[in-house]
Amino acid sequence: MTSHDVLGRQVEMPVQIRQATAFMAMYSVPAAAAQQLIDDTGLEILRFRPGRGLCGLVFVDYVDGDLGPYNEFGVTFMVRDHRSRGGSVLGDLAALARGRSGTLIHRLPVDGEFTLAAGRGIWGFPKVLADFDADHAPDVKHASVGVNGTLIADLTIRPGLRMPAASRSTTMAAYSHLDGITRRTAWDMRPSGIRMRLGGARLTLGSHPIAEELRSLGMPRRALLTTSIPDLRMTFGDATAVR
């Protein structure tokens, strides 16, 4: 078992998240524009249809875990496995269905100093400090995130249908890029009570640079899919440098 020193405290691996809640909206975005944003990672945007990629906006409330309680906002992209170069839409869809693709954590504002240091130091996650106003409890979920009074994003999603078949353990490849290094982390998720629906999101963007990046992808626009997870457990292993 490995451990990491974070601000004078030992963090044992793997890191356990025992209780969290999350909601997200998934958007279709121009693959070429998204690729420009992530070119320095050496990864490639997964195409779920010709010329289109997938961008997710997710709010997470970490209630009980090894890094303490905190809020998080993620801008993510579905990407091809780091060993894959080029490919077709059919190949990308097959990889997605078989769990052979990955999720690039492109932006990751948080509201805790300890998780900021741990995220950057252990996994190379691009965490930055931000301010949150989040309410995960009602059926209609809402949260906003900003930095020093400048809004990044304000997201509301309406409730969807219960998806009992989706409530199973899943292991994903989470990619990160920080200080010129691209890393891969095994990320195990154990969700319960998942609800999904087509559309169902209202997104407002502010004037922060992250918001401007999202505008460059054509947002705000209608979401493809929205998801809420009232009970989420996760495990993060050590990161491995891949590029």
TrEMBL record:
Domain of life: Bacteria
Record-linked Pfam families: ADC
Name this polypeptide is given: Acetoacetate decarboxylase family protein
Provenance organism: Rhodococcus olei
Lineage of source species: Bacteria, Bacillati, Actinomycetota, Actinomycetes, Mycobacteriales
